[in-house]
User: What shape does this take?
Amino acid sequence: MELQPHLMIKGRGTAINPANRFVPIHYDVDDALPQEDLPSPRTRFFVDHSRSVISRNDSPDLHFRYTLNPYRGCEHGCIYCYARPTHEYYGLSSGLDFETQIMVKADVARLLRKELMKPSWKGELINLAGNTDCYQPIERKLQLTRQCLEVMAEFRQTVEIVTKNHLVVRDIDLLSELARHQATSVSISITTLDDALAGKLEPRATRPPGRLDAVRELSQAGIPVGILMAPVIPGLNDHEMPEILAAARQAGAAFAGWIVLRLPYDIKDLFADWLQQHFPNSKDKVLNRIRDLRDGRLNDPNFGTRMRGEGIWANLFQQQFRIHKKRAGYPESVPPISTSAFRRPGYQQQLMFE
Assistant: This one.
């Protein structure tokens, strides 16, 4: 059942907190309140006392097995974010809570070092921020992602990054060191080139020109960089695929990928509410095209189809992407990434004297 349209909060992806599927008690905002009575909450940060920071992923849809996320929740506030439901495991909501109640792993670099030092760790690829963006706004102050990259550069640990924040260029020095050993790549997520649409979809993320600038700066520094059009939203941004591919290639992107919109759990209701707020005349068209991609549903959780969809629209997106990627002049092969340079600092020297 869809949520009733709610008021908006400037700078937030949503103003509502859907009920947590694990918690029976829920507080619902009174829709009768005038907009000026609706509070604009500050972002709050909490220390996450995790004992380990490398998570294993068993999804056959993904090319990596290990991820590291310095933050839980994300202040970017992207309305479509598939990670929103993970906040429910902590007694919070996938709605406004996800973008205003952020947990930070203050000890992440020390724990990362500890795990990389284990003899059982073989230097396999780690995806940094496979769940929430490791360069969200608080990173500018806390620098947890930079601390992780400092450890990774020391170990020559292979790492790939996905972000939609220009802040990634701050760490060009460390990424350049890893790139010398073919141990890193960066994907900049670009959903649209329309500033106004980006401001609604991803209210606190870097705007499109800044993301293209990040591609340009990383490319000029010799760091393998590409773009990820994620998500492709049928009826809303799918028509931008040719322009996004061309603009990113002109900025220096060496590879590109795409993922179709996913709407697990309450995200489908949040997204429908968002459409009603911002694009009421297009709401039915967008939702119906999503259903066409998902065998009549708004979400498909099945491996093999959840990232691309099925049917006419999925085939059209695939063909469109392939044609315009080639037309834009992308290389046929992806820049190589290797785990062969991995080392444990001090470990080899210790063995020499044993």
